[in-house]
Amino acid sequence: MTNTDKTVVVLGATGQQGGSVAAALRADGWAVRALVRDPSGHRARSLSAAGVQTVRGDFGDPESLRAAFSGAHGVFSVQPNSGQADAGVTDEDEARFGTTVADIAEERGVAHLVYSSTVAVGPTPTGVAHLDVKGGIEDHVRDLDIAATIIRPATFMEILVRPGMGLDRGYLSFLMSPGRVHQFVAVRDIGRVVAVVFGSPGRYAGRTMEIAGDALTGTALAGHLTHAAGRPVSYSRLPETLLARDEVLRKLAALADNGRLVGNADLDALRAEFPFLLRFEDWLAGPGAGPLEEALRSPGTGFALR
């Protein structure tokens, strides 16, 4: 049986991660079914034009999940991030959505579930609710009778060039201190890794994998951005005044300091397994060129991590 004879259901396909997974799976010849709230929406129509089957559904509607998962070989599970102000979900919602998806995938006899989590998950809670929710979903997935792979992507390179990060004013401000190494991954590469995982279930089922394409200090980030932008870009840690008034950002900065948020992937081993993983400088010259140009001319309205 070839990939074209198998269907993978991709959740979040109108967003960053799900979109990258849908694109990579289609490029590898898989049949892809995307659960969308509005099949007539612009993003859903773009998926359809790319050969993705779109079906109406919602995380909060278990029956729509059952219908979408019927006859599927695989499911890629990513939920709206409760830590994002515009996501419109609570921590409890995200936990319920993630566990329900896994339960229904098991119930429907899905052969392979891939769940996208975060590098911050570990043996003890982080104290940041929207990160610890993902640890609870991981535990639930492992308790089920289903072949599953858990991926833990590092910080997205795309976050660094969002409007509001300071690039229009000649600087980048982020969580870690200038000399602290932090790992990053291009969203495009998350999709490509997931496509490899679905293509080799015997190799990846049962694994929990951190994914990153580069590890850089803030100072090194500024150097690459300066080169790509053609004008000086400096780096600084988020200002203490901002951290003092935003409890979640303050906790995230602390997690960057203690290592929980920076990522610990073995980049050499990852690159041997997934040679397409982009370094930051290559991402800036490729998929990141457009977002960087936009960020350089867009003032934004404030720090854009959440």
Q: Topology of this structure?
A:
Blueprint: E1 7-10, H1 16-27, E2 31-36, H2 42-49, E3 53-56, H3 62-69, E4 74-77, H4 91-107, E5 112-116, H5 129-143, E6 148-153, E7 155-156, E8 171-174, E9 182-185, H6 187-199, H7 201-204, E10 208-211, E11 214-216, H8 218-229, E12 234-237, H9 240-245, H10 247-258, H11 267-273, H12 280-285, H13 289-297
Parallel strand pairs: 1-2, 1-4, 2-3, 4-5, 5-6, 6-10, 7-9, 8-12
Antiparallel strand pairs: 9-11
Helix pairs in contact: 1-6, 3-4, 4-5
Please tell me about this protein's structure:
- The protein is of the alpha/beta class and 306 residues long.
- The chain has a domain at 3-153: 3-Layer(aba) Sandwich (Rossmann fold), CATH 3.40.50.720.
- It contains 13 helices and 12 strands.
- The protein has helices at 16-27, 42-49, 62-69, 91-107, 129-143, 187-199, 201-204, 218-229, 240-245, 247-258, 267-273, 280-285, 289-297; strands at residues 7-10, 31-36, 53-56, 74-77, 112-116, 148-153, 155-156, 171-174, 182-185, 208-211, 214-216, 234-237.
- The strands form 3 sheets. It has a 7-stranded parallel sheet with strand order 3-2-1-4-5-6-10, sandwiched between helices.
- Helix 4 (91-107) links the parallel strand 4 and strand 5 (112-116).
- The mean pLDDT is 94.
Radius of gyration: 19 Å
> N-to-C SSE series?
EHEHEHEHEHEEEEHHEEHEHHHHH
- Just give the CATH class of the domain at 3-153: Alpha Beta
> Share of helix among residues?
40-55%
**N-to-C CA distance:** 42 Å
CATH superfamily of the domain at 3-153: NAD(P)-binding Rossmann-like Domain
Structural class of the helix and strand makeup?
alpha/beta
CATH topology value of the domain at 3-153: Rossmann fold
Low-confidence stretches: none
Count, helices:
13
Largest sheet: 7 strands, parallel
Tell me what the CATH architecture of the domain at 3-153 is: 3-Layer(aba) Sandwich
Q: What general form does the structure show?
A: globular
The total of beta strands comes to 12
What is the strand arrangement across the widest sheet?
3-2-1-4-5-6-10
Strand fraction band? Answer: 15-25%
User: Mean pLDDT, nearest integer?
Assistant: 94
